[in-house]
Specification:
single chain; 128 residues; 7-stranded mixed beta sheet; 4-stranded antiparallel beta sheet; 0% helix; globular
């Protein structure tokens, strides 16, 4: 059983930056591909970014490419999401998720149902 705890959310202005963290416990972190999802009010949860077990393979939603960076530190059992040039449309609850994977360099899934564990979420609000 893996527990995930997000932190780093808050209220910022458009153009600002935030770094989200997701700390894992209770499992072998390096066995999991990790992703960030988000859910805005009245909308479905969507994939934002993902990183392979190795950290060497990443993907990004088109809406955040060039602005967000996902990374992981397997020694610290933590995955990060650096968010720059924030926009009001980035306002959402951000969730991290863990996907059990056999492949060190496997591309993380982009579908919720592919993920085994979820954090409780952290609110990010961007005022324009």
């Amino acid at each position: 059983q893996v527990q995930l705890a997000e932190s780093g959310g808050g209220l910022v202005q458009a153009g600002d930056s935030l770094r989200l963290s997701c700390a894992a416990s209770g499992g072998t972190f390096s066995n999991y591909a990790m992703s960030w999802f988000r859910q805005a009010p009245g909308k479905e949860r969507e994939s934002v970014a993902g990183v392979s077990r190795s950290g060497g393979i990443t993907y990004y939603a088109d809406s955040v490419k060039g602005r967000f960076t996902i990374s992981r530190d397997n020694a610290k059992k933590t995955v990060y999401l650096q968010m720059n040039s924030l926009k009001s449309e980035d306002t959402a609850v951000y969730y991290c998720a863990a996907q059990r994977s056999q492949y060190l360099w496997g591309i993380p899934g982009r579908v919720e149902s592919e993920y085994d564990y979820w954090g409780q979420g952290t609110q990010v609000t961007v005022s324009s």
